[in-house]
Amino acid sequence: MRWLIVLACLLLPVAATAQVTHARGEFAFAIEAEPGFVQRVEVPLEWDPAAPGHDEPRWRYWWHDAQTDRRGAADHQYAEHVFEPRATSVLGEAGRFQVSFNPDYQTLAFHRVELRRDGRWVDRLVPERISLARRERGFEQDLADGLVSALVVLDDVRVGDVVRVSYSIKGSNPVLAGQVSDWSQLGWRNPVLGNRLRVLYDPGTEPAVHREHTDAEAVVTRRDDGVEVVVASAAMAAVLDEGDYPAWHQPFPQVQVAPARSWADVVAWALPLYPPPPPLPADLEARLREWARIRSPLERLTAVARAVQDEVRYFGVEMGENTHRPSAPGVTWERRFGDCKDKSYLLVTLLRRLDIHAEPALASVGRGRAVAGFVPSASDFDHVIVRVRLGREVRWVDPTQTYRGGAAGDADLSGYGMVLPLVAGSAAMVEIAAPAVGPGGVHVTERYAPAADAAHVTLEVATVYSGDAADGARRGAATERREERGRRYADYYRKRFGELDAVSLPVILDDRDRNRITVTETYLLRDALQAEGAARAMDTYADSLDSPSRLPSVMQRHGPLAASQRGRYRHDIEFHMPEGWSARFGQERDVQAVEGFAYSREVDVLDGVAALRYQLDVAGRDVEPGEVRTHVGSLRKVRDGLSARLRFQPPAAQASAERRRRLEALLKDTMKKDGQ
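^ that's the sequence the OP posted. Answer follows.
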């Protein structure tokens, strides 16, 4: 009984007053009162009947508050979340809350975990129900970030309860040296009653604000103890996330606040992270001597880029200062792994040793060209690539992309939009243009040859990948056994035609210098031809056009639509008719052209060969909102023509003989069943 009483006492909620630290192995969190800089706002007792979400059936966000104290390099971030589950299906989500922080330079403190039921707030802050774990959610994507997650679990959460969680994280990555900004999302997929972003700076700081999809004004107050910036919004309706957006677009209202800086300030911060490197390992010096003997600068560049891309695997240990400070080039080479900045630093070092002008460039994979409109900060970027200049020609190389073919810099990196080259004197972002070399694509040729008695059909398939498509095919081939690939390829045609025999495993020919991969396959199809009275029919599908003509998940759209991968996609279907067969269709031609792509489909019958020829040229241009309706309508028409049923008329004698064979087979089967 005494043990039970002690246990019950341990599970009682702990008021957030004096600081109490709770360890979980090598990690810890604290429970304490809100920091002194925080200005709390009381949550309303009722949802405003005039506000969006009054009749919301699933989930409502009552209040979201983000406050940060940047004075004196305090880097103290406070957050409060108040939400309400309105349906049984979301109670699991409402009963848990997760916070991530980096224990190398940050500390976590919880202030409140409360639940309001029947108009009364009840304390639910139970330290024993908070666990800490280094989860490394990106490990399977070859990334270790060192983040620790605190998981708060609440008992007895019911529909209509209002949950409040507040916490703060103190500290920021020292390598950023203040080159950070504060972001807050002002709208979500669920209605929000109120939002606020509040940031405090040292006296004399001039703040800058970047807004997306909101007209919420920033209120700046200057006092003796600092500068305060507040951006608030109220009564926000749920935001429809249509998906399939270009990287530069996101649909949610959000705001960024940071001290006014220039891109030159970011360059000045970043350049010391890439100093003249220490001596390189002996084996790498030997490779440099080999590469130096290559006379053509472009071939020299290509040889070095392939070595860094293929021989140094991608793996990021982004902990502490390693989030932004690259490892020494020699270290990256010796351990044979590194992330984008490690591999870029290594590639730049090697190229400079070979008298090729190169420098790292900061990019944003997550936001593409939109980053150019942000308040300049080091934290705006999530990737590093390399700019190479061969005379007047500029080439862009991403050292993390493996199995590239063709010349270095032929790959299309224009999707990164705007980047910031790290070179002394640089003060502006630079746009990445699509390379001059053609984008490549996919060309499939299917040749069908029925036996004279139509008992089977021989199918020969030749697929040619070029450019970026060849790079993707090369990476796929490197991670799959021949037998697995053969089984997967054969199963694709089994799903279309039924039983078949694979004559041999697919044969792959890789011309890496020209960046062309050819795959050939041969099958005997047993059930491809279907009887339609005296006629025979076969279904076809132009699969190589399927992916680039994919329809968006949301058809009625208000936002832009991401373009398909730039390239030319061709699919030729040839049906070689046996002697005496005739096609029960004639010539056809369908041509469509809208901004961003051009499509053609031709059907012809000549010299015993029925041919369908498809071609789709994709410019790789994102579709602006005003053009989406026309674009999607054209895509639907393209997809309507990708499948076809080809009908043929065999000679009358052959049709009669085949009917007789089918009848005999049916009678034999019936007699066998009767005999059983």
